[in-house]
Amino acid sequence: MAIETLSLNDVEASYQRGVKILKGISLSIIRKDISCLIGPNGAGKSTVLKAIMGLVNVERGSITLDGEEITNSKANQTMRKGVSYVPQGRTVFPEMTVWENLRMGGFILKDKSKVEERIELIYEMFPILRDYRNRKAFTLSGGEQQMLEMGRVLVLDPRYMLVDEPSLGLAPMIRNMIFEKIGSLNREKNIGILMVEQNAVQGLQTAHFGYVLDMGRIRFRGRGVELLKDKRVRQLYLGGGEIKTGDS
Ligand SMILES: Nc1ncnc2c1ncn2[C@@H]1O[C@H](COP(=O)(O)OP(=O)(O)OP(=O)(O)O)[C@@H](O)[C@H]1O
Ligand SMILES: [Mg+2]
User: Fold this and answer.
1) Whole-number percent of the chain with pLDDT over 70
2) Structurally, how many domains does the chain consist of?
3) Is 55 in the pocket of ligand 1 (CB under 6 A)?
């Protein structure tokens, strides 16, 4: 069987005509992997995810999902094909309960009993969401809201999940838990992950493969742990110091 991939081929994208934000991005997300995008503010990391979801205009190049072209497809269509997207910043519906938020995740599914079944599976993955199912989302902590956001897109049973800055603003212990959850979604639920991370060290430690983006171009690519050890990557993007990479 062919390797399942979500690929960008020489993608150029812009929000406004004439202002290119992505300047020829080529990368291939392998479904069995966790891939991580790092890079400075404004590099275009979020724009890569938006390009996949059809939320920014791709002017050149192509995006393919397991060989099928999805360039500039509407987000809803791409979601139906198995790609879920968790945007940057907290986006839960604050006045809705946890359960109502999860139901919203299944809004494009006609079969509502399927949605209920999936919500049960999500409660198994994130037991805290079951405990808090009747609480309004704004009462949850940052980490719990991040779990709810991931839970909400998992209702669609995706094959790939794009996550923008999942650990942003979280305390270290909660952050570790989020990275562990992402790891188990990949390993146990067979979901290909593309995550964007400010926390470059932990992001690259979690990921099988990493990309360093700068000014709309990929500057470095490689296995996560190898990028972490790369002198140039360390100097330019990781603050230059020695990085403890653990045993992985
Ligand atoms: N909706 C938009 N309209 C116009 N320009 C935008 C829009 N969103 C982002 N940009 C610009 O595109 C460039 C890349 O932004 P992007 O959000 O992809 O960066 P990023 O790498 O995710 O940065 P950060 O680390 O700050 O999240 C920036 O110069 C930004 O100002
Ligand atoms: Mg961003």
Assistant:
1) 96
2) 1
3) no
